[in-house]
Amino acid sequence: MEQKKIYEVAVYLRKSRDDTGGEEDVLLKHETALTDLVHKNNWRYVIYREIGSSDSIDFRPEFNRLLKDIENDFYDAVVVMDYDWLSRGDKEDRARVEKILQQSNTLAVTPQRVYDLNDEDQELITDIEGVFARYEYRMIKKRFQRGKKIGTRLGHWTYGPAPFPYAYDSEARSLQIDPEKLDVYNFIKRAFSVARRAAASAGNSTVVAFHPRKENCGPKACYTGSSSTRCISVGSSTEKPAADSTRNGKPHRSK
Fold first, then answer.
1. DSSP state of 219
2. Is pLDDT at 122 greater than 70 in this prediction?
3. Measuring CA to CA, which residue among 127, 146, 128 is closest to residue 138?
4. Does residue 253 surpass a pLDDT of 90?
5. What is the enclosing helix (H) or strand (E) of 255?
6. Which residues pair with 222 in a beta bridge?
7. What pLDDT, on a 0 to 100 scale, did the predictor assign at position 25?
């Protein structure tokens, strides 16, 4: 079977969110390798970038967008580092992806080879490769999860991006408090505490909108009462009402 001519391609880049650090470096390396391949063949291309840890297509928004564009016959081929990037979901997801590629007559291209799922011989090879790739992926995930558990026992941070207000220390492999983020974190706690007490005294527990700067008069926290919205200062321990608030949707000057 004569191979389809390729002019327009989609480049799909994906990096797991589970890996700590280096996300941008890995994506950049993959993007460089794939765009080199594209330029070498003089193909026109659009890049789809995705960072996520889900196997399921339902939780991969960029991949869903790519599939819709393939169904709309935007591309002659989709370019990826490895074919199993397109088929790492369950059997149902894999069948859906392959059906879309077949019906749209879209090729899958890697640096190693071109896959044409409308070629029966290549389809068989793809199925066999898919079985081994899926098994290998499961083993990698199992080893990765085991490594995370061991790292946790050693006191290392192994759970992705650092929670606010921490920063990841790559040398210590642990979390350190970020002083700049700590100021914001303390403000949020103070603002919430002040606004919650003020809202409770007003007979309503609905909190809050935070304003680090409100009309150049310092940090404010706002809460809603039954018929008004009030803003109070959280820059100090004094819970002084702001000069301006609203009542029944109209400007009101606090006394």
1. -
2. yes
3. 146
4. no
5. none
6. 209, 231
7. 72
Contact 87, 51 (CB under 8 A): no
- Whole-angstrom CA distances from 218 to 86, 189, 191, 241, 254 are 51, 16, 12, 12, 17
**Contact (CB, 8 A) for 74 and 39:** no
Please state the φ and ψ torsions of residue 237, each to the nearest 5 degrees: -80, -10
Tell how strand 8-15 and strand 77-79 pair up.
parallel
Alpha carbons 207 and 222: distance in angstroms, whole number? 7
Is residue 178 within 8 A of residue 167, CB to CB? The reply is yes
Gap between the Cα atoms of 244 and 230, Å rounded: 8
Helix (H) or strand (E) run with residue 241 in it = none
Q: What is the pLDDT of residues 193-229, one digit of tens each?
A: 777 777 677 665 554 554 444 444 445 555 554 555 5
Across the range 229-237, mean pLDDT stands at: 51
- Is the pLDDT score of 19 beyond 60? no
Per DSSP (E only), the strands in the chain are 8-15, 44-51, 77-79, 107-109, 114-115, 166-169, 174-177, 207-211, 220-224, 228-233, 244-247, 250-253
Assign 3-state DSSP to the chain and report helix, strand, coil percentages, each to 5: 40, 20, 35
Q: Which residues, 6 or more positions from 74, have their beta carbon under 8 angstroms from its beta carbon?
A: 8, 10, 46
- State the DSSP H helix or E strand holding residue 141, giving kind and residue range, or none if neither: helix 120-153
Phi/psi of residue 149, each to 5°?
-65, -40
Which range has the worst mean pLDDT, 91-105, 166-180, 235-249?
A: 235-249
Residue 8, pLDDT score: 96
Handedness of CA 127, 84, 18, 152 (dihedral sign): positive
pLDDT tens digit sequence for 67-98: 999 999 999 999 999 887 776 667 788 888 88
